[in-house]
Every structure is written in C-alpha cells, then in structure tokens.
C-alpha cells in the first residue's frame, strides 16, 4: 500500500509503497483510511521537535487524526465489525490500568500514539486497537469527520471540563479561532448559554467565529485586554480557553480571567510567569488540558452527526501529502487539510 | 478601651486608649475580644507592604484573627445574642452580591477586612457584622480557637477543595508544616485516607507533622524532589498543597505533582515559571486558594470542638503585643501567638 | 390600595381596598406590582389545602409570583433603589442560616412565603425583602416576566440540577408541557444538547413543545411507555423530569428511567410505590425538587432577557382576578394568566 | 476439582468433582480460590428466587465473592501474572461499552456474574477475566479479604457516593450493622468526619458498631425515629444509608432523612410508598445503589491493606459448604462465613 513516510528529520516525507498492516493481537483492528488530518504537529515532527520524546525509529508513517472503515479485526474484538465506519481515538489504550478503568484513558499508562510513536494513518491502512474505534453512522464520510479525531476531541475535552463553570450570566473568552478554536466555539454554543468572546489576530477567523456562535469578537491588536475588560464590566471572564498559549497569548489569558475564574491552557509553546500572590489573592486557577477520552470522542460525534459541530476542510489525494504540508506551513489552508487515500 | 494601634509604617504599634466601638448599622455586632491571633501578615502590614492595597488611614488597630463574646447587636441581628461565644470570619460581607448568595462570600464584592483596611481585633472590643459571627459552644475559650479564624479557615478551604481528588490510594504532599500547614495536615487526616507526605526544612515541624497524621516526612534539604518521587513510585502526588509558595517551594510544588494532578497554591511570595507544554502534556492544574467561606469556618469549628483539629498557641496579654510581634519576627513562637485582652 | 383578598376557604377571593404596606425593618422593600402570576396553587389555597400547613389568618392577599418596581427601601438595603425594575424570589430569606450561607436559600430555616403564609402580590404593592429582589433591565415589563418568579425558577432549578447528567448522546424525557414544562424544555435546549422527548396528553401542548425545542413528542394515551422505549432503544432515558407526578405520571416517570438514570419529581399529587429491589438492581435515583435559589432566578433572568426563554401569557386587570382564577380552573388559560394592577 | 454444585432449587448444594476450568479467550484468567464468601444471596438462589432472572442451567457452581491466586492467563492478559494474589470484582466486564469506558463497569452492557449466571468460586478454581482481577500484596491471605469482593464493594460504593454530602457538622444514619453495614461504618469513619448514628435491632451488632466508629447507636425497637430526631435536633440526617430496606426499615429510612437530604437504598426486599408532595416539599432524594466499580474495589483494598477496614470472618473447609449455608440461614454466623478450599 501507499503511505506518507518520514525518512529523516528536516526533510519532506514522501509517498512510498509499504507492506499492509495485519492483525496480530486479539484486540487489533486494521482500518482502511478514508481521511487523515494534516496537523501542525506533523510539521513539528518533521522539524524534529518530537524526536527525543517519542524515539520513533525512521522511516515511519505520519498521521494521527484518522477515520475510515474497519478492514480486519482480531478474535477478541466485539465492538466493531468489518465494514463499519469508524473514527479513531488517537491513542489505543490498555483498558486495564486505573486511568483506563476510571474513564480517563488519555492518561493510560501503556498506550501508543500512531503517527507519533508508531506508524500512523497517512496511508491506505492503519493498525489500531478495538478500544480506539468509535462506530459511526454508515452514511458518514470519514474525510468529513477525521479532523475531530484529534483537533476536535481536544477542543471538546476542554469545553466539557469548563461547562460546569459556565452558567447563564458568565463570560467565556476563547483565544484563537483556528483549527481547535473554531470547534471549541461550536461546542460552547451547543452546551451552554455563556457569553462567548473570541479573540484572534485574524479578522477572517473572527468572521467565522461570529457565524459559529461568538457573541463578541476582539481583534488581538494590542488592545485585547482592554476590550475584554470593557465587555466584562472590568471583571474579566469566568473561563478563558486559550487555544494558542504562546506569543503572548499565555499572558493575556491569565490577565483576562476573573477573580475565582479559571484559565484553561490548551495550546502550547509559551511560558507562564505569575507571582503566587496574584494566584492566591484572586483565587484563580490554571487548568491543563490534553486530548479527550474515548467517551468524549463518542459524545463529540453525536454533536457532529446532528450538525451542531461542523468542520471546514480541504481535501488532498494521499499523493499530494507534501503539498498539503507545504500549504499548512504557508498558512494557505483554511480549516483543516485532509488526505484522502 | 485599650487597642494595639499602628501610627506609622516601619514602627512598632503601641497599646493606646481609644473609644469603644458601638453599633450603628442594623446588622452591626460589637464583640468583646477573648483572643486575637498574631499573624505574619501583621508584620507585613507594619512593613508597609499593604499600604497601597488597603489605603487604610493611620493610626488604626491591627488584628484580623479574632474570637470573643457578643457585646452589642444591631436591631436586625438574629443569629447571635449578647453573651454568645463567637469566632469571627475575617471579612464581614454584604450578603447581597451573587458571590455571597452562592456561598462564596470570600469573593463578596463589597466586604471589609478589619485589621487590614479598618480597625481590627487587637483591642478590648471589635466592631464587626452579623454575617461574620460563628456561634460556639459557650464553654469554648476564645483564645484557644482564635487562630482558626484566619490560619485555620485558609488551610481548611484548600483541603476541602482537594478532598474529592484524594480517594484511597492517592498521595497528598503538604509543603510547610507551620501555622497553616499543621492545621491542613489535621484536616486531611480527618477528611480522607490519602497518604500524607509532609515536606519542611525544619525537623521539629516534621516531628509535629508525624504526631498530627503525616505518613511520611521529608526534609527539604535539596533532596525533596527525589524523596517524593521515591515515595510515589516516580509518579508524583495527585495533590500538592503548598503552604509556602516562595523560596523555591513553588517550583518543587509543581514538579512533585503527578500527571493529571493538581498543585494548590496557598502560601505566596514566589513566582511560578512554567512552559505551557509542561502544563498540557501532563494535564496538570495550578489551583489558587484564598481564605475560606463562612460555612467552611463553621465546619472547621465542628472539627475543632470535637478535638479533631487542635492548635498550638502561646498567649500574651494585650499590653505585650509588641513583644509578641517581636517574638514572631524572630522565629521564637511555636504555633500561634494569641493576644488576650 | 386594591388587593385580591381571600376571606374564607371554598369561596372566591374579592378585590378590596386595604392599607398600603410600608417598610419597617432595615432590609424591607416595598414593590409596586407590575404583574402577578395566577397559579394552580392559588386554586389549592382557596380549596383549603394549605390551611393547616400555613395557618395564615384570613383575610389575606393572594399572589406568590410577582414582578414590579421598587417603591420604598429600608435603611440597610444596598442592592436595589427606588425605581428599579425587579422580579421577586418567592421567599424572602434570612441570609444568616447555613442554608442561606451555602447558596441554598430555598432551604432557609426562617423564611416567609408571601401569598401563602402572609400578604402576597395580587395587589398594587407588596412588602418583601432586599434578598428577594433580582434587579432587571429597566426596559423589562414586569408582566412579561412575572411567571418566571415561581413557575420559571422551579423548572430551571430542576433542569440545572440535571444538566451534568445530560451530555450529548443522552435522552431527557419531560412529562408535562404546561406552565412549568414549557419553560423546562427551553432551559434544556439552552443548556444542553440532550435529546428532548416530551410526553403530554394534550396535542396542542406537544405542538408548542416542538416549537420550543423538543426532538420527539409522545401523546400520553396509554402507549407512552412503549413510545419512550422505542425512542431510547429500550434503554429508557438518563433523566426524566416529571412536571406532573400525579394521575399515573409518577409511575411512568420511574419506568421510563434508564439503568443508572435519575427520575426528577417536580409536580406533585401522586404517590410512588416502588420495590427497593427495583431501585438497587438498576441503581436508579428519585430526585426531589423544590423552588430554585435566588442565584438560579438571576440566571434564569439572563436567559429570559436574551430571548432564550420566553413565556406565553394572558393578562387580566387586577379587578378581573376572580375571572382569571375561573379561567384557570376551567382550563381556558393557555400559558400563564397574569394580573396587571 | 471439587466444587459446590446446585443441582435443583429447594435442595442443598453438594460438593462434587467437576472438570477444572481452563483459559480459552485471550483475556481469560483462571484463579485458584483461596476464599469464597457465603452470602445471603446464595440462600436466595437455592430458594429459586433468581432462577427466572438468570436462567442459569443446573447444575452449576455457587460463589460470587472470591479471592485467590492467578493460576492461568490468556495471551492478552497484561495486568496480572500466574502466582499473583488477587481479589475478584464480581462481574467480568467487556471493557468496550460506554459504561465500562466511563468507569461505571457495574453497568456494563455485556458482563457475566459467576456464581449467579455461570460457574462461581465455591470450588478449587474459577474462570474469570483480566478485568475482574485486583492485584494484592502477596502477603495477603485471600480468605481474609474475600468478603470485600461483594459485601465490601457494595458498602464502599454507597459510602463513596455519599461522602461529598457529609461535611463536618452533618449526620449520617446507618441502618443495619451486619455484613455490609459493619464495613460501611468503617468506610464512613475513614473518609469523613460526619456524626455516625447506627440503627439495628441487635444489641451485639450495635456494640460492634461502636467499636468500629459509631458516635451514637439506636436500638430499632420502635423508638428509632424518635431517637434519631433527638440526636439530630429534629432535623433528621443529611444522609441515611439503608443496608436493610425491608421489614419497615425502608419507611424509617426516608422518615429519618433531613430536608434536602438523601436516602440511600442498599438493602432490598421492601417497597417504598411515598407521596410525591413529601418528596418535593422537602427536596429529599432516594438514591439507588448497586455493587461498586473495579476502581472502587481497588480503593477499598487500600483501606483494607492499611487496616482501616477489617472483617469479622469464620472459615469452613470447602467440604463443609452445606454446613456454612445452614449456619448462615440459622443466624449462627457472626460476620461472614468463608469457604477455604
């Protein structure tokens, strides 16, 4: 089969022929890929940023945001059958550690991460596990939903954690209306009646945010702190969801947070520097966020299949993977680039 | 009456004659002081650290940690009567803002803070409000419990927030076994079965911690990170309660926190500096903590009156306030210094 | 002033001249009534069902669902001023008991209930307290929102408690799409993405339910259990909100509840009879619901003022109170009857 | 091997030779039994009460409360190894349904229940699954902990759910200080500072309750409602844990519950009959409780291994199973009878 292979850091991956994966373990599942998202993390992988963390031997296949159809299942698999349409949780998990047993499978102590530390889904077939498969309505086109497998679940996870804080009368600031942010805004609108304020440098992104449910939009042109203070009567927002968390956003985020409020860090790259006096005197929280759990992906798919969360995507054939990566790097992709084998 | 008055910053307060306070508002309460705690914050006030924040006009009376007997009540007061033994929440609150109405009266939008921004309780009488009064068993000696009014409620508030995270099998690290920490340890032991690990520089404090319920003690001599890693099998602690949060403790605290765990900041003085990547990749939280609510003080008094939380105190007559402040500054007070008018 | 007075049980109240109320306590507030809802409980009061419970001396003024403008305030009132437009929480509370201090003021141990146990709001003026007043946008017409003061807050309270159980993919059954139910449906739609199934005997009520956000409607014609089973794939609903709870609804409600689900009782009149084996073997809950808290009323008003919750009302002049009560009793009122003095 | 086989309802099971179970599925585990609890449910099975519910073909082996050592594992088992000491969650679960994925594996949609619907653990070996195994300290004697596998986990599950309601100053009534209740009392004492009131007909059971942490004991001789009212100042208890729920206890339980409180049903056999007016006017809840989750069993084992929960047991050799069942039926067992093969 064909696959997008990375043979060395700091060089473009190439589409090559490799052997098809097959089931070996009892809970293994092989999925025929229908759509594989192209993510900024793929660029970071190529740049070598993840080399030491994952130690993955090269060459290997990229792609950690995948959906398709079940092609082969191991003998102990009972939740999906060959032919089922599925979206894949990014991390096949063990199901036996206490994190998995508590419903927090993103903290599984022995999971893998195809596309990061093993062969991923930018290929015709992907080897994953039964516990990663969320079965979908057979009419779903995998290419239309693949981006929910990683970008979507991460945004949904943060929003779901914040919802109990967002009763009517509160304000939620969303920093960054890009890949994750534009999903987060839709999740907020679906699950709460909070006032949604979206902050972004890009006016086009803010226009999209308005269409998706933002009540106020703020251009991040240096006046964003003052604008949020105005909108919130000087109090700040009960919740700030920071999908950027670098290049200054991480300072804005905490500063925009109200007394007794919570600042959710979802993006990364920057460094927060905060006096402990500022933390305690206002009793503000800084909340870490990672990819969501399997059940959160299942919930998000309910929102997607009922049309409450929609994605902006642009498709490329698998052979055009290098072009898609270049477009992403150059800022030419609106929404999410999806490879279709 | 006599009161401990601060007439200028950077000079010792003196005991002077001033007019007794009287009830003017319908919910006012005048309390005859039985015990007034001497707190490190009093030293900071004298040093002028709070001058700009409170803008309190000098001279004024110190003392924000008070207990005594009700002496006079306004016409709308129904929860206490003259003669009742009471401990006082530090902030008389409005009772009408949404924070007060939600049970979060420490976030009242129009409260005062006697001893910080108005006349406090290092005196024979104190003017406070009905909403600050927690009625006690008449056999309670105010001097025995006064330190719970500020140190106690702050420690209890943080512990109570953390309890839902501390099921059997978890570990809680307590940094600092001093004034607040030694109460926090007792609250943890009373309200959970978590494994309690106490970290302090002072071996005497660690001895006390063991008597109060610590399962492990760790000397903060530079090896504390390794020790906590050993105790937790390399995972870190699900919860870290940092009663110090300065002089390096604020770095230790986050580093000792397990994946998906929470670092509670209670002390202050230092500055945290953390890459957002470290926050999101492990999904750790940094939780701010301020003084507790009125109902938390009421709950803490239940623990105190049943002997589950006890205080180490040393009493001084009111006239010896300058001496008590000097002893505190010089590190000669074990437990809490209490002025008894 | 004119007031709707009940002089004896089992006889119609009459509109009479009585003295205007005036402020006597420091936290008293007199409100000029702009709208007073007519509730089925008023019929029950006239029938004498509440006589023993309240022991209110006759004659007295009916009306427990009120909105208007502040007319006079006591000297300690700081949250409203004369002229403010307000909706009134039904129970002026003490603000000092632990229930009030915890944000659960509906469990205040010393509140009154104007319209039930003292003079109510079917009059030109009503005496209430500062803690009952929720300040509104001055452009609000009290007659448009009065029904939220009791029917609305009760529905909102139950929905808000249920929201944490209603993640995407769940089903919520609403039994009864009348006065409370039609508000509950709107609250569910505003605050969740659950699938809303509405059960009612009345096809007109079901039509309204569809317009307000119901995804499925079920006629309660004897086939309702089977219909809900069909809709939920035989599992039942994670949450059932029963706004009827009499005449068989109380049996349907528990039967429609899924394993590990919760049956919320909001209406009343019937009696549940359930083997404890049925409760434990499926781990179902039966959840009691009373009127909401002050902060819940404030939140509901946010939904109302943004148009997310709207009311169907029919107004009557104060003098037509007997006619309004007759219309309600005869089933001639669609939505809520509102008296406008 | 020898096993305790039921060949017909209404007749004593007999100890017979049967084939040893062996691993067939990839996640199967065969456990050499070290202790198997004898439960009142075994008596009910013999009486045929479960015949229709489980449809288990006779003859089969009893025993649903088991601990021992791992004897053989399937090829996909990674959490235990041959030789490990284990206690077994009663229901091997699928690990793939949403209930399992959420940490609520007791609501697994495709679990089995060895000892009820398939061969159980009153035998030398038991076939179970990897997901049922909680690994223990190798020094643990299975016979000492087996009763925690069913009685213990059920009591712990209810207590754990109630803990957030049981802050200092509250009261928790425990009805029934027998098999489950005596564990529940210890869990309450370990995890809260609530005031524990134990109600039982048996004075010996109440003596034990006092030793285990009860603050008040009440003989259920007809005066129990008045006694609980006295102890709680007429308010009732915030939480009532009813380990009996038959023979009148189910009426006492709700009656002893305070306004806004919760009545936990854990035992079974009776029928509750409650007007919905009583439920809503006081906002009381009735909470169903089933066996706990795997992670709850793991937590309970932490309490057991640290000595915070201890069991009273009496051992019998496997051959004496009929005698043990007779002793249980005749009320001659104090604590729990345990078969040791």
Fold and architecture overview:
Four copies of one chain form a homotetramer. Chain A has twelve helices and 17 strands. The first copy, chain A, is of the alpha/beta class and about 350 residues long. In chain A, the strands form three sheets. In chain A, strands 3, 5, 6, 7, 8, 16 and 17 form a seven-stranded mixed beta sheet that branches. A six-stranded parallel beta sheet of chain A has the order 11-10-9-12-13-15, with helices on both faces. The longest helix of chain A is centred in the middle third of the chain and has 12 residues, at about 150-160. The interface between A and B is medium-sized, with 34 and 34 residues. Strand 14 of chain C pairs antiparallel with strand 14 (about 270-275) of chain D.
Order of SSEs of chain A, N→C? EEEHHEEEHEEHHEHEHEHEHEEHEHEHE
Number of domains of chain A: 2
Distance between the termini of chain A: 10 Å
The total of helices of chain A stands at 12
Quaternary structure classification:
homotetramer
Under CATH at level 1, the class of the largest domain in chain A stands as Alpha Beta
Largest sheet of chain A: 7 strands, mixed
CATH topology of the largest domain in chain A: Quinone Oxidoreductase, Chain A, domain 1
Name the CATH superfamily classification of the largest domain in chain A: Medium-chain alcohol dehydrogenases, catalytic domain
Q: List segments of chain A where confidence is low: pLDDT < 50 over at least 5 consecutive residues.
A: none
Helix content of chain A: 25-40%
The chain pair with the largest interface is: A-B, 34 and 34 residues
Question: Would you count the extended β strands of chain A for me?
Answer: 17
Shape of chain A: globular
